[in-house]
């Protein structure tokens, strides 16, 4: 199957690495051809293609999605282009992978869900943290009732790459291209993990947004930051679980800290992305022996580990994208459901927009529509 990746920067590199490695570690999947890497700057995309192993390059994504040698279109553009590219690729009959968040608004997400339902190709949303073995194991343990009925949750995703007020402007700091700031960038991951781990949706949310650095140096002088630097929210699910959410890109000292804690009636689970191979399980019981147990999720019996290294050898962030590509190829070959779906992206976007609506209304509890 011929693959085209639209975008060659951070996410384009991560996805390229996955397509290059997927057949080596998942030999059961259909082989792929890294056919075309697409970017607006011809010189830069040619260099990226040479570095990453692509057979060819293009600067016009519209031409690429119509080609017969392209079967899978992988969308790694800034968020404001997700809907346009994905809708066109689905209409062209391609299988489509879209990096999160699905789009910049609920309306765009709804259009994508409808298009995916009517399309010949399969549609996958790139919530890659669903392929972290420790989080996949956490979902299994919750489903098995190992921590009882979940009542509370705490989620945070903290980074510090914008803590320096002189850090330059990027497309991620402009609402017209990013849709929102940290809420869409990191909050989408945290909300999806809550949905994924619990198997239910957030129905109500209240929240607060903050932009700590209102202006940053741009290529042509000082620019106004039009998105949020940090956000806080309280989330309520349809079964009554209450979750706190905190996301920030100005949290000094935290590099890539997605943390998830689930508190059940008979135990709890704790995960931190900065310790990606560990899952902490606590189960109530004998007071002499109960307490947190750190599970090293590195054994063949754990999710996704059979494809990788001998027992005890840790995985990294990049492995999640390779496992995601393998899951997508299997679903295409077997005509089976994918996860995350575009519906999952819509559910997450509804929560994010409810948080923004709540903030504008002074923190009012707001229905999400899920």
Descriptive notes:
Pfam families: GFO_IDH_MocA, GFO_IDH_MocA_C3. Residues 137-270 form the GFO/IDH/MocA-like oxidoreductase domain. Keywords: NAD, Oxidoreductase. This is Gfo/Idh/MocA family oxidoreductase. Residues 2-122 form the Gfo/Idh/MocA-like oxidoreductase N-terminal domain. With 370 residues, the protein is α/β, with parallel strands linked by helices. The chain has two domains: 2-129, NAD(P)-binding Rossmann-like Domain (Rossmann fold, 3-Layer(aba) Sandwich), CATH 3.40.50.720; 133-340 and 346-360, Dihydrodipicolinate Reductase, domain 2. Helices cover 33% and strands 26% of the residues. It contains ten helices and 17 strands. It has helices at 10-25, 42-52, 61-65, 82-91, 106-118, 133-143, 175-178, 182-198, 319-334, 342-360, and strands at residues 2-6, 33-38, 56-58, 72-75, 95-99, 123-126, 150-158, 202-210, 215-218, 221-224, 230-237, 242-248, 257-264, 267-272, 278-283, 292-296, 366-367. A nine-stranded mixed β-sheet has the order 16-15-14-13-7-12-11-8-17. Strand 1 (2-6), helix 1 and strand 2 form a beta-alpha-beta unit. Helix 5 (106-118) runs antiparallel to helix 10 (342-360), helix 6 (133-143) crosses helix 8 (182-198) and helix 8 (182-198) crosses helix 10 (342-360). The radius of gyration is 21 Å and the shape is globular. The model has no long low-confidence stretch (mean pLDDT 97).
């Amino acid at each position: 199957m011929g693959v085209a990746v639209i975008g060659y920067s951070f996410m384009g590199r991560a996805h390229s690495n996955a397509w290059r490695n997927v057949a080596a570690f998942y030999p059961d999947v259909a082989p792929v051809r890294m056919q075309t890497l697409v970017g607006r700057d011809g010189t830069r995309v040619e260099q990226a293609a040479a570095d990453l192993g692509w057979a060819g390059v293009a600067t016009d994504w519209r031409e690429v999605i119509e080609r017969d040698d392209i079967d899978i279109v992988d969308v790694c553009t800034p968020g404001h282009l997700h809907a346009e590219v994905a809708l066109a690729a689905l209409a062209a009959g391609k299988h489509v992978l879209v990096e999160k968040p699905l789009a910049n608004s609920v309306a765009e997400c709804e259009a994508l869900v409808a298009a995916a339902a009517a399309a010949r190709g399969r549609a996958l949303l790139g919530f890659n943290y669903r392929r972290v073995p420790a989080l996949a194991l956490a979902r299994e343990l919750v489903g098995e009732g190992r921590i009882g009925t979940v009542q509370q949750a705490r989620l945070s995703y903290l980074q510090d790459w914008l803590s320096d007020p002189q850090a330059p402007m990027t497309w991620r700091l402009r609402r017209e291209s990013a849709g929102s700031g940290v809420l869409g960038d990191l909050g989408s991951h945290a909300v999806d993990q809550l949905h994924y781990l619990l198997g239910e949706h957030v129905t109500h949310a209240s929240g607060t947004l903050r932009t700590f650095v209102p202006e940053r140096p741009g290529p042509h002088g000082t620019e106004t930051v039009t998105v949020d630097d940090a956000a806080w929210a309280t989330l309520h699910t349809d079964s009554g679980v209450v979750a706190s959410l905190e996301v920030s890109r100005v949290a000094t000292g935290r590099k890539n800290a997605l943390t998830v804690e689930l508190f059940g009636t008979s135990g709890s689970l704790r995960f931190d992305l900065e310790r990606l191979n560990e899952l902490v399980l606590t189960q109530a019981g004998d007071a002499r022996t109960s307490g947190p147990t750190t599970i090293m999720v590195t054994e063949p019996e754990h999710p996704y580990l059979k494809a990788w290294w001998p027992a005890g050898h840790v995985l990294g962030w990049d492995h999640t994208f390779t496992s995601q590509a393998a899951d997508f190829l299997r679903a295409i070959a077997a005509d089976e459901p994918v996860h995350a779906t575009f519906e999952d992206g819509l559910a997450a976007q509804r929560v994010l927009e409810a948080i923004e609506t709540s903030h504008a209304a002074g923190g009012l509890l707001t229905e999400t529509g899920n």
